[in-house]
Amino acid sequence: LEPSHKWRRVLLKVSGEALAGDQTQNIDPKITMSIAREVASVTRLGIEVAIVVGGGNIFRGSSWAGCSGLDRSSADHIGMLATVMNAIFLQATMESIGIPTRVQTAFRMSEVAEPYIRRRAIRHLEKGRVVIFAAGTGNPFFTTDTAAALRCAEKVLLKATNVDGVYDDNPRRNPNACLLDSVSYHDVISRDLSVMDMTAITLCQENDIPVVVFNLGKPGNISKAITGEAVGTLIGG
Ligand code: UDP
What we know:
By secondary structure, the chain is an alpha/beta fold. The protein has nine helices and nine strands.
């Protein structure tokens, strides 16, 4: 990655789990505030920021499907609603420190947020507003990583999560697993490095979207990733 201001417009994916921090509550307001502050600092540099939020801190469809007769589609609809909760929380936090922010949802909830309209989202970004995309792709059986790849603004996906990046093996199973500076899409897929689901990673590969995976919990990381400083792991060709 080249230093400083490499990206004019970025898509930041904030995973739900990272929003929870080590709180017992679903959302840690200290984390949403630190995201807001870091995003504010880069929007001041003129970089346009769009965000896709996950929902795993509140509800993950795949974990609930099958419980008490809950079918997968219904569970995933609940999961997508969870992302809307996170989006509204994040929007309120951003606006409390003066960042104009719009939420767009992949299915209509017009009393709460705008529907997703690509051209309108771009217009908001051009006007210096942050756009938060909620409700994933709007379809069950997908993830918000896939939504992030689909919405990817200017060909870079920055995935803020609760691990430092991509390891060469599962660090929970293998204590000698090493953090990688960079890795190819092919290796992520063939070695099943489980940083994103297959649909999301193959979509990035097919469209040459570089992905930077980094830890949201470390102060400064969001602005580093957005301004193109080396952080976490770069997944690319
Ligand atoms: N979800 C879905 N379709 C999508 C995106 C998300 O059905 O396009 C549902 C799914 O149930 C998922 C939940 O929303 O478990 C939360 O999203 P995700 O797991 O991607 O959040 P994250 O892992 O980023 O916290």
